[in-house]
Write a structure and sequence with these properties.
This protein has 347 residues and is of the alpha/beta class. The protein has 15 helices and eight strands. It has two domains: 4-54; 63-342, SGNH hydrolase (Rossmann fold). The chain has helices at 4-27, 32-50, 57-64, 76-83, 106-112, 119-125, 137-150, 153-163, 189-202, 216-221, 225-240, 269-274, 277-289, 305-312, 325-342, and strands spanning 89-92, 100-103, 130-135, 170-174, 179-185, 209-212, 252-256, 301-303. A hairpin with a 7-residue loop joins β1 and β2. One of its GO terms (molecular function) is acetyltransferase activity.
Length: 347
C-alpha cells in the first residue's frame, strides 16, 4: 500500500506538471510539432518526479517471470484439480507388504497431470525460490521430505541430525538452483503470528512458499479449542496483511493440518489425557470455522495431514502422533503439484 507521503507527492507532481501541460496544449494546439515536443518534455519531467514512488523496472520484470509467481488466475479446471489433490490411494508396498505406498488413481493423474516430481523437476519448479516452513515437529518432517527430494541421499542424511536439533531453527540451501529452505521452530500460534507480523514484515523480501502449522502443543499444554480458534484468526489476519509495498503477489501459503492421533499409542499420560479424538475434532472444527483456509476465503491452502495419516493407517506411526516419511512425502508432492497448478507451469 502506498504511504500517505507518497500519495501527497504524487498529487503535487500531477498538479505542478500536468496543469502546465494542459495550458500548453491549449495555447499550442495550432502548432502540432511544438505541442508534442512540449508534451514529450513534460512527460519526461513527470517520470523523473514520480520515479521515487514507483517500483523499479528490473524488480517488476523479476517478479513477473519468477517461476513461482502465478502469471494468470487459475482456470476452473485447475481449481477442480487442486480440490482433488488429496484423493490418493494407499496400498501395501512391495515386496511382501514392506510398509505403505501412495499414488494418485491413474485416471485422476491423467486428467489433472498429477505426478511425483523428480529431483530435477522439483529443482526447476523451485529455482531461485525461498521456502519457509514454520511450526512444530510435524513441520520438521515436511522439511525432511523436501530435503530428501532436493538433495542427494548422502547430503540429506547429513542434514537430518541438524534439522532435528531440539527446539531449534534450521537453514539449508541448494546453491546450484538458488533455492533456500528454512525451518522456523514455532510450536505455538503466537510464535507464528509474531513471525508474520514482525519478522517477515521487516525482512527485505517475503518467502515464495510459506508453510505454517500448529495445534499439537496447544492441545497438550492449553487444551482449549475456542482459544486455539481465536489464535488462528490472528494468524489469518497477519497472513492477509503480509503484503509487499511493491506490486508483488503474496507468497504461496499452505496450512499443515493436524494428523490423526492414535491415543493408546501416545507416549505420556498427559498426551493420552488431552490429545483424544474429541479434542482433535474440536481443534479441527476451529480450523474449519475461522476462515484461515482458502476454501473459506482465508489465505492458506490446506495440506490435509489428517486425511493422509488416516489413509496410511496405524501401521505408519510408532508413537500415535508422528508418522512415517511416506505420509510427508505425499504431503510434499501434493504441495508441489499445487504450486505447479497455481503457477500455470507444467514440468
Amino acid at each position: 500500500m502506498v504511504s500517505a507521503a507518497a500519495q501527497v507527492g504524487v498529487l503535487a507532481a500531477c498538479v505542478v506538471l500536468f496543469v502546465p501541460m494542459g495550458l500548453a496544449g491549449w495555447h499550442l494546439s495550432r502548432n502540432k510539432v511544438l505541442f508534442f515536443s512540449g508534451a514529450l518534455f513534460v512527460s519526461l519531467a513527470v517520470g523523473v518526479h514520480l520515479s521515487p514512488y514507483l517500483p523499479s523496472l528490473p524488480h517488476l520484470l523479476v517478479s513477473s517471470f519468477h517461476p513461482l509467481r502465478p502469471a494468470a488466475p487459475s482456470s476452473s479446471s485447475s481449481a477442480s484439480c487442486i480440490s482433488v489433490l488429496h484423493r490418493v490411494s494407499w496400498a501395501d508396498a512391495e515386496p511382501h507388504g514392506g510398509g505403505r505406498a501412495w499414488s494418485w488413481p491413474p485416471s485422476l493423474a491423467a486428467t489433472c497431470g498429477f505426478a511425483r516430481l523428480t529431483r530435477d523437476d522439483a529443482s526447476t519448479l523451485l529455482n531461485g525460490s525461498w521456502v519457509m516452513v514454520a511450526g512444530d515437529s510435524q513441520a520438521r518432517l515436511l522439511v525432511l521430505a523436501l530435503l530428501r527430494l532436493l538433495l542427494d541421499p548422502a547430503a540429506a542424511a547429513a542434514a537430518e541430525p541438524e534439522l532435528f536439533r531440539r527446539h531449534s531453527d534450521y537453514h539449508a540451501a541448494v546453491p546450484a538452483r538458488g533455492i533456500s529452505v528454512d525451518f522456523i521452530w514455532a510450536p505455538f500460534e503466537s510464535n507464528l503470528t509474531r513471525l508474520l507480523r514482525e519478522d517477515l514484515r521487516l525482512a527485505p523480501r517475503t518467502p515464495d512458499v510459506l508453510v505454517l502449522g500448529s495445534g499439537l502443543w496447544h492441545m497438550l499444554h492449553v487444551t482449549d479449542a475456542p482459544q486455539y480458534g481465536e489464535a488462528l484468526a490472528s494468524i489469518a489476519d497477519a497472513a492477509n496483511s503480509l503484503r509487499s509495498p511493491l506490486p508483488v503477489p503474496p507468497p504461496h501459503m499452505f496450512w499443515l493440518g493436524l494428523p490423526r492421533l492414535v491415543n493408546p499409542m501416545l507416549n505420556t499420560d498427559a498426551k493420552k489425557e488431552h490429545m483424544n479424538d474429541t479434542m482433535l475434532q474440536a481443534y479441527d472444527r476451529e480450523v474449519d470455522e475461522r476462515c484461515i483456509l482458502r476454501r473459506d476465503g482465508g489465505p492458506f491452502r490446506l495440506l490435509d495431514v489428517g486425511k493422509l495419516s488416516r489413509g496410511c493407517e496405524q501401521q505408519c506411526t510408532a508413537d500415535g502422533m508422528h508418522y512415517n516419511g511416506v505420509v510427508y512425502d505425499a504431503v510434499m508432492h501434493i504441495m508441489l503439484n499445487a504450486l505447479v497448478i497455481e503457477s500455470q507451469q507444467r514440468i
